[in-house]
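Appendix B. Chain record.
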Amino acid sequence: MNNLQQILQMGQQVQARMSQLQTELSSKTVTCSSGGGMVTVTADGKGKLRTIKIDPSVVQPDDVEMLEDLVLAAVNEAQNRANALYEEEMRKAAGGFQLPFPVPGL
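Structure tokens predicted for this chain:
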């Protein structure tokens, strides 16, 4: 019976740490740019976009496709970096502990 209680306590501690980690990831940011800094995107540690900044020199009505490509490249890179940050923080939180099954949201 003690083992079951210890497992339940450990589960509660993991759940509390994951909740805290989600809050921390919301406050961390990654910033990426494309086109030599003409388009800059900032996302939080969960991958949610926070800002997109576009250099006015890129806004040309006759070349909207280039601007779309630059925005897409910057957004994709920001989301990739946010995902890497998320995975890194999750590994730290788990302390190398491998769960025998996937946990939703991790």
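Further analysis of this model is presented in Appendix C.
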